[in-house]
């Protein structure tokens, strides 16, 4: 159980779910295109992403809390980190060779470097760690477009392929915004612990009250993006629009309202859980939108 916590098992499930739902709830329902990766190769893409993310969680947790608190010797913990990270990169290289785009290995190498430097350096830097984690979250969605859609441009309807790629890009942008929001809430929740560890998070640097207001501003951006997407793309899709209003925008508004009265770590922990639920429902929304489009066709 400690090992599952060490590698962030719950977050890994959420990552794998998001990537699988894009494949089997969206991409497989697009008419007239043959994706660049078969189901087996796509599963390897998810596996590589999960292994790299697991390595990132592991190195973060052992640098923050020590490997002994998870029942592991430090050298063993670093061997596991190396195995997960190198394994993910090897699978990533294999996939880039399959699609003939070895330069796309950067899509795996950037998260590896970012997660490592976050754990060893960026966590002590004001906001840089939050931004780094948010970008990695967005890249975990964008990588789907890199490996499945981008390489087949020219082999299908270019307008349709561009629209699919645009959808993936919009979801990755929204993932960055949600990632920034959830990491700021995490900092607010852990202010006292981070202060004792000598970290320089936003609440420590400017105080909880001001940090909560900045977090509120990020939440407004998230809510604004939801409203923009609904108005721009979903006005004719009643089921999808209702889903986003209830399961995505509703919890975000709940978080915004309660940010003004949140004071304790428990208060911020509840809001963090709410936004993590929003991340889950956002992932699921692509399947809801696809179903709504097909049912109207």
From TrEMBL:
Annotated source species: Flavobacterium suzhouense
Keywords from the named record: Membrane, Transmembrane, Transmembrane helix
Transmembrane segments: 42-64, 76-96, 102-119, 126-150, 170-188, 214-231, 237-257, 269-293
Superkingdom of this protein's organism: Bacteria
Record's protein name: Prenyltransferase
């Amino acid at each position: 159980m400690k090992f599952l916590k060490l590698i962030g098992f719950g977050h890994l499930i959420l990552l794998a779910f998001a990537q699988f739902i894009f494949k089997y709830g969206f991409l497989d329902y697009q008419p007239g295109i043959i994706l660049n990766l078969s189901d087996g190769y796509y599963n390897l893409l998810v596996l590589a992403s999960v292994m790299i993310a697991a390595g990132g969680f592991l190195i973060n947790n052992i640098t923050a809390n020590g490997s002994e608190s998870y029942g592991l010797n430090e050298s063993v913990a670093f061997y596991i980190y190396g195995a997960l990270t190198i394994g993910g990169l090897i699978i990533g290289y294999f996939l880039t060779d399959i699609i003939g785009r070895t330069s796309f290995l950067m899509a795996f190498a950037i998260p590896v470097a970012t997660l490592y430097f976050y754990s060893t350096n960026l966590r002590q830097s004001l906001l840089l760690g939050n931004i780094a984690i948010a970008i990695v979250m967005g890249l975990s969605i964008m990588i789907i477009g890199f490996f499945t859609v981008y390489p087949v441009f020219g082999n299908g309807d270019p307008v349709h392929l561009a629209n699919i790629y645009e959808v993936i890009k919009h979801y990755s942008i929204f993932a960055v915004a949600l990632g920034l929001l959830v990491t700021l809430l995490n900092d607010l929740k852990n202010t006292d612990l981070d202060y004792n560890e000598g970290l320089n998070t936003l609440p420590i640097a400017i105080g909880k009250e001001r940090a909560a207001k900045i977090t509120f501003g990020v939440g407004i951006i998230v809510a604004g993006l939801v409203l923009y997407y609904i108005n721009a793309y979903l006005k004719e899709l009643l089921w999808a629009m209702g889903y986003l209003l209830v399961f995505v925008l509703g919890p975000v508004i709940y978080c915004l309202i309660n940010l003004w009265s949140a004071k304790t770590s428990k208060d911020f922990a509840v809001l963090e859980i709410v936004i993590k639920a929003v991340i889950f429902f956002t992932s699921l929304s692509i399947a809801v939108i696809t179903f709504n489009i097909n049912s109207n066709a």
